[in-house]
Amino acid sequence: MTIKDGLSSSFVETIAGFTAGIVSTLCLHPLDLLKTRLQVDRSSPSQLGGSLRVIRDIARREGGITAFYRGLTPNIIGNSTSWGLYFLCYGKTKDLMRRLRGSRVPELTSTDYFVASGLAGLATSVLTNPIWVIKTRMLSTGSNTPGAYASFTTGVAQIYRAEGIPGFYRGLLPALFGVSHGALQFMAYEKLKLYRTRMSSASRTSGDNIGSGATPARQLGNFDFFLTSSLSKIFAGCVTYPYQVLRSRLQTYDAHLVYRGVGDAMAQIWAQEGFAGFYKGLGPNLLRVLPSTWVTFLVYENTKSCLV
């Protein structure tokens, strides 16, 4: 019995996504911390001082290199769980769509990919939001800040005591808005993969025209995954980034004292910081998400290839 015979496709999707989440988090956690610090800063962009200033402040005031790994535990738990659940739901939804079409290997449309990834994103956001609340609070403050959570379990206990169950779901609404990011990204990713496959097949057919004319099936390589994941992430990121700022603002320790809700947060950001306020942290976010996307999708695709 081969590995492919012994493992279901849903199990393969879950393990590949779980592995990708762990690897990408371990590699890029410091950039995630920097992005979060910039997102929750309420000063005007001109007063921020830039990413280098924030990096210096963290290194000098919070304990050097180790300070850049504060909140690593909830970040690993959140990313690995999120990617595992996401790919599981995404694969199941695509399989269901194929069965409903009555063919074993039909070509799904852009709308199909958008809906499948959107549903997977909704389920994942609801199930993992409590982890992201703790992660955001730990990343947005130094360990020596009064009231800061000492660990993941401490954060769980303090939120439950002080805010109850609703405290674990702060920022859920903008997170649900952010589902559109994943939906757009995966729609673009799947269609770009199909385009790359067709382009390569057409090129190979032309090259083999003198011979038998047969076109061998072509597996996409790492460069293809690198290119398609980059383009799809940039596209989705440029469209949907403001929701990440809103989510981070609403998940901070004192959010319930500063903002009355999503609408009030949007109004305050616009009044105090202008349009640029909705894109705070975009620079380090781009530096973070592209390497994170490369690592996540390369690990995911290669892990899945090994398992099947």
Largest sheet: none
The coarse overall form would be globular
Helicity, as a percent range: over 70%
> What is the CA–CA distance across the termini?
12 Å
Radius of gyration: 21 Å
List low-confidence stretches: 210-218
Element pattern in H and E: HHHHHHHHHHHHHH
Tally the helices: what do you get?
14
Number of strands: 0
Derived structural class: mainly alpha
Share of β-strand residues: under 5%
Task: Please give a structural write-up.
The chain is 74% helix and 0% strand. Helix 2 crosses helix 5 (72-100), helix 5 (72-100) runs antiparallel to helix 6 and helix 10 packs antiparallel against helix 14. The termini are close together. It has helices spanning 3-6, 9-40, 45-48, 50-61, 72-100, 110-139, 152-163, 172-177, 179-207, 222-240, 242-251, 255-258, 262-273, 282-307. It has 14 helices and no strands. The chain is mostly helical. GO terms for molecular function: nucleotide transmembrane transporter activity.
What's this entry about, in short?
This protein has 308 residues and is mostly helical.
Task: Describe the secondary-structure layout.
Blueprint: H1 3-6, H2 9-40, H3 45-48, H4 50-61, H5 72-100, H6 110-139, H7 152-163, H8 172-177, H9 179-207, H10 222-240, H11 242-251, H12 255-258, H13 262-273, H14 282-307
Helix pairs in contact: 2-5, 2-14, 5-6, 6-9, 9-10, 10-14
Task: Please supply descriptive tags for the structure shown above.
308 residues, 14 helices, 0% strand, mainly alpha, globular
